[in-house]
Design goal:
GO terms for molecular function: aminopeptidase activity. With 422 residues, the chain is of the alpha+beta class. The protein is built from twelve helices and 16 strands. The strands form three sheets. The protein has a six-stranded mixed sheet. Strands 7, 8, 9, 10 and 16 form a five-stranded mixed sheet that branches.
Amino acid sequence: MYERDFMEGTRGTMAVDWEERIDVKRMRRERKERALDRLQDSELGSILLINDPNVRYVTGLAMTGGSGADHYTLLTEDGDVVHWDTADHASNQRFNCPWLDDIRYACPGLGNVPRASGSASARDWLKDKMAETVYTAMEEYGVDREPMGIDVGNGTLIEKFENRGVDVDTSAATDIMLDARKTKTRDEIECLRQVAAICEAGFQKITESARPGKRESEVWGDAVSELWGHGAMAQGGYVTSGPNTWPKHQANTTDRMIRPNDLVYADFYNIGYLGYRSCYYRTFSMGEPTQAQKDAYEKARDDLYDVLERIEPGATTDEICKGFPDRDGEHMDWYDADEFWQMTTNHWAHGLGLQLYETPLIWRGLSPDHPIEIEEGMTMAVETMQPAERQGVRVEEMVVVRENGVEILSEWPVSEITRIDY
């Protein structure tokens, strides 16, 4: 495991002049440079980005979901950036985002707006107008006669570009952005370290909040309040308890009352800091855990660290995934499952960044036949679980791949279940 140097690690969440923290200007610059380098190495003259994380990666703008293609960005081979957004957002960005000098009003050709129109002719008009806005910019920047990549493959929208003589590539833009984003810059790693620290504040709040008779939803509400108070955006996550901990409850957090001897499971996924997403699990016991609960936790933890010890630059995902449980360890008979791909989300490692799932994915259901190589600078979450009688334990770490292994970004104690004495 990678050992950090003295004074290396999480700083405060505010801007100060007396020490170096996350440098957002450097992060914006380096992300755009990575995407531009890969675009210039391709046969494309530009890429049209509609996927929110890709837009944020290149522009640095806050993407909060929107209604689908009401914001989109063109990056040209010369490094020009044109961004389209809704009326209010675009007006705000023109004032507050001086690093972007060409911000225009978007026509939402995909998503909720055309769907809500209730009219086939309206949907067609919106897509045509969206293509027109982009094509006009391509002409202005001299890339209208070169191939354009697009990261969302909508057939009708592509047709609208082709009607204007644009050669549209539906795969290269995705490959460019995946390659740019698969390893992280120094500041991106610090964003992930910071969101892990914020999640730990949420875990602490759970230890203070969870009591017999208190509902899961109340405990989760207390935790979310803590997360928001530290500057996070909570766009996912939940708390479950007792029999809702295994298998995972379909409704996530419910109004179930917590009882003595329960396990309580906190899943802090999609908690964001500057857009960078967490995936961080911990299990708590209401009072002294039973022997079965201790044994299950020990198994889950050991499986997790077996995988972590296999991750290093140059290792391949087909070999690493062997550290995850086999058929018996996956309890495939209980699930009445025949193949590993049927066990989605139970035991795997997935990349973390501006999205919850980025490159790489390490999973027995996929990696043996489709391996990729691990690279230094990749960031990921590694997660395992085990049943404990009628309940279950889950544990997960957030890590970054260093030159000689992984550095663990998550710090909540992992050696045993956190006990909540009430």
